[in-house]
Amino acid sequence: MQASELLSAYYVDANTWDEMYKDATVREQYKGVVEFMQGLNIEELNRKEEMARNLFMSQGITFTVYSSGEGIEKIFPFDIIPRIITSAEWNYIEKGIKQRLKALNHFLKDVYNDQFIMKDGIVPADMIYSCPHYLREMHGFPVPHDIYVHIAGIDLIRNNDGTFYILEDNLRTPSGVSYMLENREITKRIFPDLLPKNNVRTVTEYPTILHKNLVSLSPRQIAHPTIVVLTPGIYNSAYFEHTTLARLMGVELVEGRDLVVSNHRVFMKTTAGLQQVDVIYRRVDDEFLDPVVFNPDSMLGVAGIMSAYRKGNVAIVNAVGNGVADDKAIYTYVPAMIRYYLNEEPILKNVPTYQLGNPEEREYVFGNMNKMVIKKTNGSGGYGMLMGHMANEEEILKYKEAIIEDPRQYIAQPTINLSSSPCYMNGKLQPRRIDLRPYALCGPDGIQIVPGGLTRVALKEGSLVVNSSQGGGSKDTWVLAG
Amino acid sequence: MLSRVADSLFWMSRYIERTDGILRMLKINYASSQDDVHEFSWKPVLKTFTYLEEPEANELAYNSRAVLQFMVTDKENPNSVLNIVTHARENARSVQDHITKELWQCLNDYYHTVRDEHLIQLLHREDPVTILDTLIKQGLLYYGITDITMARGEGYAFINIGKFLERSVQSADILDIKFSDVDYDFAKTDATYWKYLLLSISGYELYLKTYRSGFDAKNVVEQIVLNRDFPRSVEYSVSQLHRYFQRLKGDKNVEAYRKIDFMIGKIRSRVKYSTVETIMETGLHAYLQAVKEDLYEVGNAFNQHYFAYS
């Protein structure tokens, strides 16, 4: 294929950072991939795309959509062109995330114990107490090694000058890591030899590190503590991920109905009777975890698990109550937390955020609605979000009313132009907007981030929403060795 | 092992064994229906493998394509291959961390194959044997992969327990229903009839080698119930069931183990110390019925003592 053909439809939007192009030439880090692609013809490229789809399907890397009583298997769209991060960019991201997580962990320990940060007036107490994810059940008891956030999936975006910004801190049950792992496996199959040729760092250590960290949390000092992954079950859209993690770590995948609490200890029901569980990596949200303490209708949790947790007889990962730290209104205070707890300047920037409880900020936001993104403070998955520049009068009015009703529930951010990255579309490369979610693991030995992550991509032309529930896809994410 | 996991492995395995049985029956009966056999009827198949009422079964009994459609792809038929494979795959899906990746992919592929619209079209329009063969092969792949890749632990024991429990019930069923079709009147049957029955459970060649004097109903009963070397005989299946069950012996759950060991041992002895003559004395139907009931009891005991979790 001629060089010009593959790139003939490529363009860079005004005021946008493009990952591949700079002044109409291909950046150094993308040269290897672009040259390789140009050596293939359209049929070959289409075949690779087809092969990727079949691999996802055959391995059951799917989620099930139930309609008219019948399950339909769907795959999350995958774009075959990798997203490439240079080693300098990665070092900067890695440092920034470690710093941020350290501060957030201090913050969680503080708000659930001494509350110095509130007493010193850095974060207003009403901000904390009005957060629905602040759980008084977590008050005043030590969690193992003082670690609250064991697994974080912090979302990063890049604005028009290429600066990385933190979009949100996912500190509860961040998902998508199995796609980081599987996307890489798919790349190995569809592009033989391309990874080693480009000096791409491996991501395969993730389950090993996670397992080591989980073992270290065991309350019983025994050679082989029982570690489990707790899933809501096969109907959960992330079920594939839960089973992948259990398989890769060689631990048991359990559902709430497999567990029982007796005498403040958690047991699983096995063919040989009850077996005590030491560490639970749960993928069930706080509110469903224990019907005795939280939502009484929950069928997904285990009655009495919180009492076992508070007694220190079982470790729960991530800690319960982390939602207070990734609340979108608390987000504004993270740079202040970094200064307060670490006495350091934040490395990674926050996106400017307007607190709508503050009348002045609210006035400003209401006057500039078409330049704003309005988000619910405890929403996720791209739901409960208003993109000002796309919305009509009626939608804007509806949001304004809702904000006046309960300003604590919303924040506003100026629309950030996500960076664009090449995607393979009908025989050509075309720019689509992306974000980045690296996965950080905190254990007693510190914070480790496998070099890679999940790059989500908005597959619709011009769209800025990358969420999989809103027509987003994903890419393999390469971090190059230095 | 989690009780829920043991339960799922057991059922995954039973469902595939059942699928295999159904597909073989369909293939051979279809061939038989093309063989211009005098008044060929699908009724025994429908009676073994579906919950159809008499009138509904009668309506289908002489329409091969309709039976194939009902048995393979009908979504409303809880025992269609489509539905059973879906159950097997759902069970496998919930225990992916206990089976090998190869085994999961095999069942996942089986599921996608049986839902393939194109294949379904062929089943209705072209040669059904080709399609049935494709499906049977997918099942054989499952058996091979299980054998080659699965670790010989508790999970493997439960897989085999499910498999042989299902198989012993099926073999008893096939015989019972085939004979009920002729009101247990052995004189009413002819050679072609036996040939197809044996072919459907891969026992034809063995029969020819064992009995050189042509077809005799008593010999058929002897092979399907009592032949120790025939992998589909009741005797073989029950002793395999016992063998894999005995691997569960340990220092936990001792009482349950003893109880079920006793139950299986009893069935095994009953079959082992039978002869065709004693079976005929009891009456074939009564004999098979008693064996089946005892096997159902074993299934219930597993539910109670090994799989109870909710």
Global shape of chain B: globular
Largest interface by residue count? A-B, 26 and 28 residues
Query: What ranges of chain B have pLDDT less than 50 throughout 5 or more consecutive residues?
Result: none
Number of strands of chain B: 0
Class based on secondary structure composition and strand pairing of chain A = alpha+beta
- How many strand units of chain A? 26
Mean pLDDT of chain A, nearest integer? Answer: 92
- Relative helix content of chain B: over 70%
Average residue pLDDT of chain B: 91
Unreliable spans of chain A are none
What quaternary form is this? heterodimer
N-to-C SSE series of chain B?
A: HHHHHHHHHHHHHHHH
Count of folded domains of chain B? 2
The Rg value of chain B, from CA coordinates, equals 19 Å
Distance between the termini of chain B: 15 Å
Q: Beta fraction of the residues of chain B?
A: under 5%
Tally of individual helices of chain B:
16
Q: How would you classify the helix and strand content of chain B by structural class?
A: mainly alpha
In short:
The complex is a heterodimer of chains A (482) and B (310). By secondary structure, chain A is of the alpha+beta class.
